[in-house]
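Dear Dr. H.,

I hope your travels went smoothly. While you were away I took the liberty of generating a structure for the chain from your last submission, since the lab meeting agenda had it listed for discussion. I wanted you to have the full record in hand beforehand rather than looking at slides cold. The sequence, exactly as received, is reproduced here:
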Amino acid sequence: MLQILKPRKLLTYLCLSSLSLFSSPVMAAESVLGVVKSVENTPQWEEITTRLNQIGVNYCVVETKNWRQEIDLGSISVLLLPSVGSFNGSQTVALEQWMNKGGKVIVTGPTANLSPPSIRERLRSLFGAYWAYPLASPTTLELSANTPSQWNGRTLLENTFMGAAVIPTDNNGQTAANWIVESNPPAAIVTDNSTVLGWRWGSNAVADASLDTAWLQASLNRYGISTYGRFTPENQDTEEKPCRPEIVPQNESQPFIPGWELENNPSPESRFDSLGNNGFALQEKETMIQELEGLIGRFETTLLTADARASQINSSTSELINQLISQGSQNSSKSATKQVSDSTYPQAHKALEKAKTQFQQFLESIEQGRYSQAKRQWLAARNTLWDDYPTDRQVATSEIRAIWLDRGTIVKARSERDLVKLFDRLEKAGINAVFFETVNSGYTIHPSKIAPQQNPLVRGWDPLEVAVKLAHERNMELHAWVWTFAAVNQRHNVILNLPEDDLGPVLSRYPDWAITDKKGDRFHYTSGKAFLDPANPGVRRYLTLLLEEIATRYDVDGIHLDYIRYPFQSPTGEYTYGYGLASRQEFEKLTGVDPVEINYGGSLWNQWTGFRLKQIDNFVASVSQRLKQKRPDLILSTAVFPIPRQERINKIQQHWEEWVREEWIDMLVPMTYALDTEQLKTLTRPLLEDFSEGKALLLPGIRLLNVPDVVAVDQMQLLRGMSAEGYALFAAENFRPSLAEIFNRLQGNLETISSEPLPHRQPFRSTQVRYRSLKQEWNYLISNHQIEMDEQVLKTWGRQADDLSVAFQQLAENPSPRNFLAAQSSLSAFRRQFPSWMEQNKTINTYQAQVWENRLETLTRLLNYGENRILSANK
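The corresponding predicted structure, in token form, is as follows:
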């Protein structure tokens, strides 16, 4: 709870505040502040309006159910968004258009967190910051050294209450206040156009009204709006008015929004921070339950893997079952106690049982309407699991464990000696593949005979040559990470002390190679990058020769293509790209129309989109063929966006499904970056549908920035429980020593790394090793009386499990078509019966059973991948 300010402190604040009456313009009678009313903040609406009325601000209301266009915002200059969770595509476009014309926003609480991922990311960029994660307990907020000067001395802006960390997305954002807790996360961030507050403004359950009104007054004052000294009696009847009072005609022209923008499915963001005295929505309840059930499931499966690995029970499953039956004991009345006593993690098992109890108490409190207590129980269960997450034993199996080694980290190394230390850290952490940033912003990290200029920050030595040597000495693979079509980065220009709009080494020589927007601007309106024209023959030849140089001059294990796309374009067609000289000429030859003359949504627009899409596809196909001819063993991978297909095609012309289907690439690395594990699950699950045939391997990305260590581990364990062949960490600059220590224990056994097969190199051997881990878990449970089913069914399961093991071993030792068909047939039969076996089992929970089914599916994909890449190549 908030501390009540003493009268003297309040008087001091009021005196300081009143000074602004003489320095800031007074607000006119016309409403300059709009306040968004949504489903999420309706329960607190009375508390919100009470605060607005206390400071006497003239405001109008924008209801989300009636908000479709920019005109719905009326003539306001500032928009307050108090915990508005859900936005649709048309609202996002309207807000962006309004802000581009000078509108300012005050964003509070988890605004946009319930919006679809694409919309959420767009709004986060627009606001310049976002609600990242809630704090576990009431914490003191303190103004920072970067707070706006007009806020200095306002003591009422500082207090102790429940809040959340906010993370900037804009380099121009400044931290105005911090939470006084470990790492001092930001509590408030300001940009030129926004003020983002890390708490649920307008809720009595979170903060006192005096603090909320003080922050609103201070935020309005930034935009030249003064309300200090105004007063509205509490009993005054204030009628709300809409920001656009007139009724919108039914036939009024609406902006065209593609179908993907109209999706409004909630994201699995954590809702535990939102519980108040008034309860919460059904969707919120279900999301919280799903999150905690998922965490419990991952904790339990990780614990089982660790226990099974430590037990080293590698005997025949049939023999164990026969031994169990001969002992006459499938009785599990003592099973839970026995499992704890036999485990090398007794504390983790106790924590698991404690968390399950706390989860049940949480459910009971919800049903009884004790919401504050439910919140504490939810947090207690989560913290119990986080504090005792099993991280001190090996749980990894045959998989790809990659990391992006970024240019900044390479530059900081400065010499081979420093790179040695870095690669030693990665080796100890179990990393077996490195995406080494080789081409960035048009500069190469190596001295090149093709590219115009090596990055001046590494001039004098060849980091790529050194990295290849260091990686191979440690049984790690080194893949050259290449910015494909992104040729200039304004941020990199600043680092090099160049003019921001410098065209870099490539485009400065060949300016006609650039694509532009319709106005002829080369630099992208938000990212600050300039792109090469994929339709330009000179561009394609240059990039092909550069990639061939890397693949032939250096013993790299793979080429990793990044920015293999067009720049992001707005869904309204206001900002579109691809108007390079070559593209315009080629398209006009095909259609008779210069694409600059085509309007968004017009008859030729889809043809223009398809033309650009084809340029990317053709380049990937051509490069794949050329590189494989020169280096058949070379692995080609691509970093791609995991956003829905049609949205991706419309916005960046990236159709990676085609690359997988045609086997142009070996590995797909989607940038499935998420702050919580459930969100990662939501992003990854749809991708698996395109990998059922095993034509490429899937490595979802985990972004380490702003993600706690235990959450990063939890995300890694999620991917291991799904049917993915590994993961990729972004990036080395965020690979903290604390996280590296955890990885050392989980997957850093040097003997294991040197002997374990990589799925893309030895798919059949990898299948055998992965299945052995599965059998190890089953054997551990059988030996601990944790498997209960009919004896005959159990015997059948054990016999087929052993037969499958033999089939995998024979295929790994002799990869022939005959052994492949035998293994494939055996696995198919086993998978068909597995669900019914699990249904008969009385002790295995559904989460664990699903994880096992996922892992069996991975084996099917690895077999298919091996057939496509190994057996077909030997024909």
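Two observations you may find useful: The chain has a mean pLDDT of 86. The first strand starts at residue 33 and ends at 37.

With kind regards,
E. W.
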